Amino acid sequence: MEFVRLNNGISMPLVGFGTWDIRGQAGQRAVLDALEVGCRLIDTAQMYKNEDIVGRAIKESGLSRREVFLTTKLYGPSASYQKARAGIEQSLNELQTDYIDLLLIHEPYENALEMYEAFKEAYQAGKVRAIGVSNFDADRYQTFLQRCGVVPAVNQVESHVYFPQLSLKELLESHGTRMQSWASFTEGRKNIFAEPVLNQIAGKHGKTSGQVALRYLTQNGIAVIPKSVHRERIRQNLDSLDFMLDSEDLEKISSLDGGQTLFGWY
């Protein structure tokens, strides 16, 4: 397992497990599978309506709480100071834990700074180990930075081989914020697994196109949280760290960058 160090000194796994659209018993089983094959970062959100199954899976895994890096996010219903305070307590209860490793504002809401005040209080109280944002583009991030008081540890954004956002990553790191990718496989917006460039490089290294796509991001210093409900695919995602792309590989993959979001966020 490889880690990245956040701006307050804590370590976050470079590869984690995303839980978007994972629910019910099958979802809980997928989270448990991820933990059993060695994943130590689980990413959820109140918007996903699955914090409860994530909490149960962590309990069922038998792992100590400190072995799992747990991320969640607050969204629109918590977009004020008081609502964010209540939202933090709600997440702690749903996740059956007394602290959250990383707490993010899910989107750049109008009241994001109010929410962040509640985040900072929870951070000072030890209920949260690190705080940050999600889906903040360069302009919104820099505006937020002027008034937030505590530099976000992480900005979680759309990032994949077709839109890696490497310039945003450089900007974030210049201020001490780590970038983390959601939609590393594009969530079906493009068939990344059939991409000829990735398949050619995968064959060269004895890997899958998905592993190559993840390695391109992680080798560029971008943390990833790919989602899968298949145990073997989850294992493959973790195993994407055990090889290196060479300069020729990186150049070929960089040619896939279209410079445009596939989701309309930015």
Explain what this protein looks like in three dimensions.
This protein has helices at residues 24-36, 51-61, 81-95, 112-124, 138-147, 166-175, 196-205, 209-219, 231-238, 247-254; strands spanning 3-5, 11-13, 17-18, 41-43, 69-74, 102-105, 131-134, 154-158, 178-182, 223-224. α7 crosses α8. It has a single domain, classed as NADP-dependent oxidoreductase domain (TIM Barrel), CATH 3.20.20.100. It is built from 10 helices and 10 strands. The longest helix has 15 residues, at 81-95. The chain has 266 residues and is an alpha/beta fold. Helices cover 41% and strands 14% of the residues. It starts with a strand and ends in a 12-residue tail after the last helix.
Please outline the helices and strands:
Blueprint lengths: L2 E3 L5 E3 L3 E2 L5 H13 L4 E3 L7 H11 L7 E6 L6 H15 L6 E4 L6 H13 L6 E4 L3 H10 L6 E5 L7 H10 L2 E5 L13 H10 L3 H11 L3 E2 L6 H8 L8 H8 L12
Parallel strand pairs: 3-4, 4-5, 5-6, 6-7, 7-8, 8-9, 9-10
Antiparallel strand pairs: 1-2
Helix pairs in contact: 1-2, 2-3, 3-4, 7-8
Question: Could you write a compact summary of the structure shown?
Answer:
The chain is of the alpha/beta class. It has helices at residues 24-36, 51-61, 81-95, 112-124, 138-147, 166-175, 196-205, 209-219, 231-238, 247-254; strands spanning 3-5, 11-13, 17-18, 41-43, 69-74, 102-105, 131-134, 154-158, 178-182, 223-224.
